[in-house]
Amino acid sequence: MRFRLVNSITPITAPLVVFLAFQKFDVTVPISNIEFPVYGLCMLIGLVLTIILFFTSKWDETPIYFPLYCIIAFGISMAWIYLIASELVAVLQAIGLILGISDVILGATVLAWGNSVGDLVADIVMARHGAPRMAIAACYGGPCFNIMFGLGLSLTYSTIIHYPEPYPVAATHLYYLTAAFFVVGLTVSLVVIALVTKFVIVKGFGIFLITAYLAYCVLAALISAGVIWPETT
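The structure corresponding to this sequence follows.
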């Protein structure tokens, strides 16, 4: 029974999620000399599609246009993730302002742990079930995707919004420290795994990576507190 209901309400709920995620309820289009909100127009179109879909779908069978719904569901899922991530970042920034903690510290600790705990559990499960190569590939493939695709899309969107003005990024010592540890960690991993251990992961290398991350957290905290390498005004 769920197929008919889900198929019918999707044309109405999907646009609302997108407008809510990107906060574009104020966008309007001129219709007969009247500024009509775009979300209202989408709601009207969605209502018509809802009626059509309700009478062209069945209670207990998937419709023939179900693959199109899968594509739409993927896009809506990205909108939900964007919405939740935006709220999470806003909460972290509020906590940082209240406690006087840098955004970089929160991003490298709390946000990074929350973002990676799912990958940690999945990789451990895969390794214990006889797929260590897949687990290792996921350890590097996931962050690589986040950096190249996620950061790439974010910067592209930000530069388009600020065009023709450049998008300003305040370069602080914490950013330099983060970039240095990132580059050094990947370089050492490449050299050790490819040349030293011959693509055999040893326990000592894992301990080295954990120690390097803890050292980064300590240095980042000291820099944020102004104990070492203070920012010059």
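The chain is about 75% helix and 5% strand.
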